[in-house]
Design goal:
Main location: membrane
Number of helices: 20
Shape: globular
Oligomer: single chain
Keywords: Membrane, Transmembrane, Transmembrane helix, Transport
Organism: Urochloa decumbens
Subcellular location: Membrane
Pfam family, one: MFS_1
Strand content: under 5%
Order of helices and strands: HHHHHHHHHHHHHHHHHHHH
Radius of gyration: 25 Å
Distance between the termini: 43 Å
Structural class: mainly alpha
Amino acid sequence: MMAAGGEVAVPLLGTKRRHDGCPGCRLDEANKTSTGIPYRNFFYIWIVCLASTLPIQSLFPYLYFMIRDLKIAKQEQDIGFYAGFVGATYFLARTFSSVPWGIFADKYGRKPCIVISILSVVVFNTLFGLSTSYWMAIVTRGLLGLLCGILGPIKAYATEVCRKEHQALGISLVTSSRAIALVIGPAIGGFLAQPAEKYPNLFSKESIFGRFPYFLPSFVISILAAGSCIACIWLPETLHFHDDEKVEAIDALEAQVIDSKLEGGKAKEDSDTSTKNLLRNWQLMSAVILYCIFCLHDTAYLETFSLWAVSSRKFRGLSLTSQDVGTVLAVSGVGVLVYQLAVYPFLVKYFGAIRPLRPAAVLSILLLITYPFMANLQETELKILINIASLLKNVFSATITTACNILQNTAVAQEQRGVANGISVTLMSLFKGVAPAAAGILFSWAQKHMTGLFLPGDQILFLMINMVSIIGLLLTFKPFFNMSSALRRS
């Protein structure tokens, strides 16, 4: 095609044709005509994210008692060992399935991936609550992690279902739903587990909830997941399906014309966009490693805290109930939400999002040192202090995690962030999978070695968890990580 002056008129690369029957094109057309925020679609995304995250967070308040009742542990000190593997199975399975689910979502659509993931929550979370043996719990938990591949695709979906100016809001909905799960999940697990013991007037020991004491929290979450699965009917597909090979050939030809017209590499994609070169981007990979280390610490802490809080006083535990633990974790979740909404914006305004990382890590380390000594407290003072300590710990963790996420995204160009976050999620899932198993083994070892060492077992337990955070703090300095360069980019 010739323009005035004999020059080749090059079509704009960003220009898209509308293809009849393509759901992605149909949604693009709808977004062009509607400039408002798609509240209904955003609400469905929020519910779906919440339903997929609740099975992770609801487990910890009652995991110790569930392992005890499954009678896999020969002695009380072994409960933590077996509990660790139940907590780890979900994350390890997700490590292997994250990339295949991403490929599936790119080929067959976001909506099928979301629906299958939610259905897996309905089926396998319910079966987990009905577990009559340790291995049934392991298998159902593993299948849930393997088939619930929603984490990556839902982030992509949240940005594709709306206009560009609303994409940040879509991503924030994914984050906020996971934050709400930190509140609701532990409350569901803590208050609804063992209902026949806690609420004998409502649930008899002969009922299904009496015979399966950990079924009720799973059942409630599965009901919510089933409702969100129904809501998926109204979710529009965002992926473009173009089967017209002639149109694709024209698009490819146009791209070649642009490459020849704009020499000097302006229209050529930089080689760093490949996954191979992303792995060579040290600023990115060092930020990802930092993120993974602090995720390892947070997951190990949560597993250890849940086991330690309900364990017996003779092992220097707190002898709390699953309801108490659920309350502590729920209060911490509410506190983190308030912090993120009311306090954190002012912190970022005056200090930036990255600079508080090191102070938060130092304060977290100092706080965790005090945990073993809380076993000397009783009743009201114990509950007050453990709630304050847990709240502060989660606030510090939220500050660190947010900074690590920003470090990852500022280390690459915008068009590379999808692949970069995919790498991060895969490695993070691996670290989170190792954390509960390692924490459970260490917890069991600590209970068997309360005396005879240079420190009591419980102090060694928290010292080892603290060492992970210390390593993460040390890695924020040169030569491993260039913080000053990261601050300039942000």
